[in-house]
Specification:
Blueprint lengths: L18 E4 L2 E4 L2 E2 H7 L2 H10 L5 H13 L5 H9 L6 H14 L9 H25 L14 H10 L5 H14 L6 H10 L5 H12 L7 H12 L5 H10 L19 H14 L3 H18 L5 H11 L7 H22 L25
Antiparallel strand pairs: 1-2, 2-3
The structure holds acetyl coenzyme *A and oxaloacetate ion (OAA).
Oxaloacetate ion (OAA) binds next to loops.
Length: 371
């Protein structure tokens, strides 16, 4: 048997033509993420991940129309969301609600590529609606129906508040969605691929992915960064807070990465957005604290911020509740998860590694009274 690689570090598990990370450069279907963040809208990126090429105008308009038309969720799912305990984490609510979508999807078990594409559209369109509905229901408010004429970013912000979001907020949110859309074999995407490689349905793959993204070592880190900023509280407290955390060998959330050792190319975009947006809302200290944390963690540990670090202050600036940060990541990553699931089905082989057994050997069954 081959040597064990802890955490599968550096292991190439399959071929993929969706997303690459080469020498620290992140590209979707060969297009540098910087160009996409600068020029694209999220729906173009969704199309790019699903089809491997940017959409022409009519193709983009068709996708936007399909996403708009499919954004409403079945009444049964809304009713079930009403029954969830109000205090549960929104990622747990999302995981359950996405699972229940499958119960009302007549195509849930149809494994044809066409049906899986249609389900990908529905999952992409309905995820923001589920999250916004849960966020309102837990506050005792009525959910707001999606507006089919709005883009995905605008619609989500609108469904949360019932108010037309500002252009700045929509643009910032859209860029954040682009930056989080895919990241080759990250843990949640890999979980989705392992799941569907048994030839189970797409919903099962997405439920695995949501459960995996939730963890604080992965997508859950953005919420933890927000908690850290609150605990730090002031610029003066950064030094003692981070010193104590490092002395106690605590992980500083939003730092480090399995693949990027010289910095995450998405972080600079979020850093700049954090600078601008925190100034706009009159809370520049959130950015200043973040920069000071970065300086300290980088100089003491050599660790750079990942995508989750500055996204926290960006989302705080957009007025979003902190426990919605990871579900927002899920909205974006739904595009990548579904792209990877469809790619897995196209060229499937069961994913089944081996374990290096380290337990006792040559043991015997001992009757219960003699143990
Ligand atoms: C979207 C995303 O998923 S991005 C990642 C989001 N997660 C986080 O931000 C959580 C904080 N970061 C981490 O826990 C890690 O850096 C991970 C999980 C992202 C990557 O983990 P790995 O590739 O396994 O790195 P690993 O844990 O081996 O780190 C190497 C060393 O750096 C340390 N280290 C890594 N990240 C951090 C951190 N954020 N704070 C402090 N020390 C850290 C480790 O403790 C380890 O030290 P050691 O060699 O003395 O034991
Ligand atoms: O790739 C990873 O390990 C985590 C990550 O940055 C992502 O999923 O965006």
């Amino acid at each position: 048997m081959t040597a064990t690689t802890r955490g599968l570090e550096g292991v190439v598990a399959a071929q993929s033509s969706i997303c690459s990370i080469v020498d620290g450069v992140l590209s979707y279907a060969g297009i540098n993420i910087d160009e996409l963040a600068e020029n694209a809208i999220f729906e173009e990126v969704v199309y790019l991940l699903w089809h491997g090429a940017l959409p022409k105008r009519d193709q983009l308009e068709a996708l936007q129309k399909q996403l708009g038309e499919n954004a409403a969720i079945p009444q049964e799912v809304i009713d079930s969301i009403r029954s969830y305990p109000k205090g549960v984490h929104p990622m747990a609510a999302l995981r359950t609600a996405v699972s229940s979508l499958a119960l009302y999807d007549e195509e849930a078990q149809d494994m044809s590529p066409e049906a899986n594409y249609r389900k990908s559209i529905r999952l992409m369109a309905q995820t923001p609606t589920i999250i916004a509905a849960f966020a309102r229901i837990r506050q005792g408010l009525e959910p707001i129906s999606p507006n089919p004429s709005y883009g995905l970013a605008k619609n989500f912000l609108y469904m949360l508040t019932g108010k037309e979001p500002s252009e700045t907020a929509v643009k910032a949110f859209d860029v954040a969605l682009i930056l989080h859309a895919d990241h080759e074999f990250n843990a949640s995407t890999f979980a989705a691929r392992v799941t569907v490689a048994t030839l189970t349905d797409i919903y099962s793959g997405i439920v695995s992915a949501i459960g995996t993204l939730k963890g604080p070592l992965h997508g859950g880190a953005n919420e933890q960064v927000a908690a850290m900023l609150t605990e730090v509280g002031s610029l003066d407290n950064v030094e003692p807070y981070i010193r104590k955390a490092l002395d106690n060998k605590q992980k500083i959330m939003g730092f480090g990465h399995r693949v990027y050792k010289n910095g995450d190319p998405r972080a600079k975009w979020l850093r700049q957005m954090s600078k601008e947006l925190t100034a706009q809302i009159g809370r520049p200290e959130l950015y200043e604290m973040s920069v000071k944390i970065e300086e300290m963690v980088t100089s003491e540990k050599g660790l750079k911020p990942n995508v989750d670090f500055y996204s926290a202050s960006v989302y705080i600036s957009l007025g979003l509740e902190t426990d919605l940060f990871t579900p927002i990541f899920a909205i974006s990553r739904m595009s990548g998860w579904t792209a990877h699931i469809m790619e897995q089905y196209e060229n499937n082989r069961l994913i089944r590694p081996r374990a290096d057994y380290t337990g006792p050997v040559n043991q015997h069954y001992v009757p219960i009274d003699q143990r």
